[in-house]
Amino acid sequence: MPASSAEQPAARPERTELAVVGAGPAGLAAAVTAADGGLDVVLLDAADAPGGQYYRAPAPGLGATRPEALHHGWAEFAALVARLGRHRTAGRIRHLTGHHVWAVERSGADWTLHAVTGPDGRDGATTLDARRLLIATGSVERQLPFPGWTLPGVVGAAGAQAMLKSGLVLPGRRIVVAGSGPLLQAVAVSLARAGARVPALVEASGYGAYGRAPLVLAGNPGRLAEGARHGAALARHRIRPLTHRAVTAVHGTDRVEGVTVSRLDREWRPLPGTGRRIDCDVLAVGHGLVPQLDLAVGIGCATRCGADGSAALELDDGLRTTVPGVWAAGETGGIGGVRLALTEGELAARSVIADARGGPGTARAAALCRSRRRMRAFAELMGAVHRPGPGWTDWTAADTEVCRCEEVTTGAIRTAVAELGAGDSRTVKLLTRAGMGWCQGRTCGFAVRELAGCAADAGAPDRRPLACPVPLSVLARADRPEDA
Amino acid sequence: MRRPRIRTAGRTPAALAGAVPGPAFEITFDGRPVRALPGQSIAAALWAASVLTWRTTRVNGRPRGAFCGIGSCFDCLATVNGQPNRRACLLPARPGDVVTSQEGDGHAGLVR
After folding, report:
1. B2 occurs within a structural domain
2. B25 inside 8 A of chain A by CB
3. How confident is the model at residue A482, as a pLDDT?
4. Is the pLDDT of residue B109 over 90?
5. Choosing among A1, A45, A48, A62, which should be mutated to test the B contact, i.e. which has the most B CBs within 10 A?
6. Mean pLDDT over residues B55-68, rounded?
């Protein structure tokens, strides 16, 4: 993979025809396709190399000679990166690495993007004008609280995967993987291949539920093959899959020493007396992914509630959002995986090209559209199978922290609902500070909404005017552009 | 062979990826030396040294470290070279970095 952290000029850039936010699979496919079509593209991404979370790779200094050993589909990614490199050299794509876009606003017929720069957004700030906007901001992991989940040694499953892919490190030697969703299988296998002992993969749902939709499965043979491949790899590494179970307690005082795994009923309620201890030094946990919609929601893009219970962008067949001049691709339209993201990235770019240059729809676009519908059907099935059952709230104890930043417990949230009359998650937040901390509810948002138990809340998008932390000095300059 | 299946007890992430890293360097964590490899984040260097905790929370003083691994959860905040609230999972380690455990909001010095 070519190095992609070349310095970009810091001066205010010219207006571009298309700004793509996010250089993961969807954004990368979109950027190179749009540039192939002759558009002038700026690709903004927080990381210093393309790939997003899925194709996260070790930093060049780590000298990985086999980065493909950490990934599936590496050849396809390498081909996209090579195309990106050619477009960068030719000046058709400007790839702005280390750019965290914190807000987008309409300015006349254009979009103005505001970004802070540097590895954690502390180095500087910049703005950019674009005629069209394509949002490919991906997703973050969904978490459900349980007793002990704040103890050091409990890490996000996707987080453990990300740290392994980028830093070539493991958080411990004996790792239980738990939660729900197909990502857990990939994580468990990765950790085992990297040398960890993975005694169990604890899945709250069951894989049999996929059988309810044989037609959807038949239309997605690739996903069936992937499941079979994961099953074989789990067996090879002696990882025991435990379905319809969840971690209901974590043991240890300063760090994880073991977990208790309990059986669940169909609604994910733990069955008393079924708890069994498994010794481990790390628990990697996650309940699938949630689309990152801050920028899109900020400019008024409409959302829908997906089968997984989380908000996703409402998109048409050309991947237009409900706001003219704004497209989206990949996980922002609902969690669907890397193949769907690559397909949607290309399709969205073709839709942008048609908008910019005119011309009839192509056979390629029609084929992509059919693939997309097929994969979206699988994504909805996956979302429904792994959607947390209502009984998960029974895992939590009164003193279980739900909001990790503000240290707000289940008990405090239940009191706000039952005794103080909070009827929705916003009122819960105002009364308890749940979701008001550093992460702005990115980690606890889903759980707080479910504990608040308001039907109108379900699947509603979070609203965050700032998509990442922004220094006050940058905000002040953004308000008075003549100082920028 | 594209996907070597190494099943020995000596499996490591570096061996899996065929890593030939540049020269290791030193950072300090709460005064003691920690080895880091070029390109690793501060959180990755700490994990490699079996350190999982580098912050205590504001309300209950509970220990925390990296959780989401991608800069989204802010649990991995540390004080780096005197600056509090740096996300250790995003910040690359640099030779000589002085990392200290962050207590609460990391601004206790302001109110003394």
Report:
1. no
2. no
3. 53
4. no
5. A62
6. 96
Confidence of residue A454 (pLDDT cuts 50, 70, 90): confident
Shortest distance, CA B32 to any CA of chain A (angstroms): 20
A103 phi, psi to nearest 5 deg: -165, 155
Which pairs with CB-CB distance under 8 Å and at least 24 residues apart come from B32-35?
A: B34/B99
Asked if residue A484 has pLDDT above 50, the reply is: no
* Co-location of A234 and A333 in the same domain: no
Among chain B residues, the shortest Cα distance to A191 is held by B13
User: Quick one: pLDDT band at residue A481, thresholds 50, 70, 90?
Assistant: low
* ipTM of model over 0.90: yes
User: Which domain covers residue B62, as residue numbers?
Assistant: 24-103
Q: Residue A231 falls within a domain, yes or no?
A: yes
Q: How far is CA A383 from the centre of its chain?
A: 14
Structure tokens, A341: 């993201």
Give the closest-approach CA distance of B90 to chain A in angstroms.
Answer: 6
Number of A/B CB contacts below 8 angstroms equals: 172
For residue A431, CA distances in Å to A118, A246, A393, A408, B86 come to 35, 30, 20, 11, 29
Distance from CA of B13 to the nearest CA of A (A): 4
**By CA distance, what is B40's nearest residue in A?**
A167
Which CATH number covers residue A236?
3.50.50.60
Cβ–Cβ gap B44/A254 under 8 Å:
no
- pLDDT value for B111: 61
Q: Do residues A76 and A89 make contact, with C-beta atoms less than 8 angstroms apart?
A: no
Considering the domain boundaries, does residue B40 fall inside one?
yes
**A81 and A161, same structural domain?**
no
Q: Is residue A11 part of a domain?
A: no
Q: What is the pLDDT of residues A304-357, one digit of tens each?
A: 999 999 999 999 999 999 999 999 999 999 999 999 999 999 999 999 999 999
Do A376 and A402 belong to one domain? no
Domain that holds residue A182: 145-285
Q: How confident is the model at residue A457 (pLDDT cuts 50, 70, 90)?
A: confident
CB within 8 Å: A254 and B63 = yes
Are A372 and A344 within 8 A, CB to CB?
yes
State how many domains chain A has.
3
CATH code for position B77? 3.10.20.440
CB-CB: which of A46, A58, A120 is closest to B17?
A58
Q: How far is A48 from chain B (nearest CA, A)?
A: 10
Token code pair at residue A195: 């040398």
Q: Tell me the residues of chain B between 68 and 107 that have a Cβ less than 8 Å away from chain A.
A: 68-75, 77, 85-87, 89-92
Segment (H or E) for A132: strand A124-135
